[in-house]
Amino acid sequence: MKNRVAVTGLGSISSLGDSTDKFFESVCNASLDFRKIEFPEDYPDLKIYGSYIEELDPKFYLGDKNFRPLDRTARLSLIAATQAVESSKWDKEKLHTNEVGLSLGTMFCSLQSITHFDYNAQTAGVQYAKPLDFANTVINAAAGQLAIWFGLTGPNTTVTTGYTSSAQSCLQAYKTIIYDQAKALLVGGVEELSHPAVIGISRQNNLAIEKEHPLPFDKNRSGFLLGEGSFFMMLESLESCQGNKNIEAEILGGANKFDISQGKDKEQTVSTVIKTINEALAESNISADKIDFVYASANGSETFDDIEAIALSQVFENNNTPIPTTAVKSITGDLLGASGAMQAVCAIKTLQTGKLPGTPNLTDSIIDSDKISVSQQTIDIDANTGLVINIGMDGLICVMVVGKLC
Q1: What domain count does the chain have?
Q2: What stretches of 124-248 show up as alpha helix (H) in DSSP?
Q3: Phi and psi at residue 331, in whole multiples of 5°?
Q4: pLDDT tens sequence across 191-245
Q5: 125 and 32 inside one domain
Q6: Whole-number pLDDT of residue 244
Q7: What is the CATH number of the domain that holds 325?
Q8: How far does Cα 46 stand from its chain's mean position?
């Protein structure tokens, strides 16, 4: 018999809030925080907007400690992970006496640190390349730093699967627990809005250039805007946390697939998204008509928003009532590898509060189905289960089902 997987702690930091409650309140209030990204003089002068944290002082959140070995990505991760650990009621002694694992999803991780280290070595000379900075030039640097910080002795993985990275890390952690390979894992995602990352994404022609807000599911959409932040959950086997009164929700199931056409064959991609959703529902032992809300992956992409809209319409075509759906990236921006964890945290807050954030600025919807309901404003719903969808433009698709513990 498979273990059940409980969520016992949440942690969040972004420009919209430095705790999960503050962040979700800002999302429900549609507190848009997109600002022009300022580039150094030697970078192209691009008019790109994003949602980012202006100043990050880890001492404000974690006290006067030595943060020198941690780059910005690791600091973002540490702040959110600490919140998740503390809210799950794990203390240092419990962490050190139990084999707790870690799974971190990120698309670019320490790209800024890698770029800075290489630039200094090539322009100023290798004698100016600091050995301490070299530790942050590997993609799993943040996960390693977190393991050291918390004294974790369980399995430690960094998942870098592009846009779906943290969704995949959540699914990986879920499967690790249900098959009894670990009792508890700290799982989440992080993305730093760095200049090299912004330039790289802009060259794919997916960003909404000179736009001050994205328009997911809207006929006038022209791309997405970027965000940054870190979002974590503490996952535990339900059997091992029965004494924990702070169970936030349950991960009921999930699935992932790869679309070899990567959106170029619309019919095939739609089919792959539908198969992934149906497989996640089957894994969760739940039917489509029992899903109470959807956190869509839509971010303003001209191709993939349309694909997701068609897929959702077909998955829920036999429902008696419209399924409430939100495109939360209209508020947060696309957090790339951290998006899946962010959406999962939001879905759990929706289960707790009964509030589903709206999709602001949606005026001319592409959704041609009376089975999908997308509101501009936050709505109140009575929810027991939710669907979280993460569709990568690189072909990977990941779907999770979350629910209230029952």
Answers
A1: 2
A2: 131-134, 141-150, 165-178, 195-202
A3: -105, -40
A4: 999 988 998 898 888 999 888 999 999 999 999 999 999 999 999 999 888 666 6
A5: yes
A6: 66
A7: 3.40.47.10
A8: 26
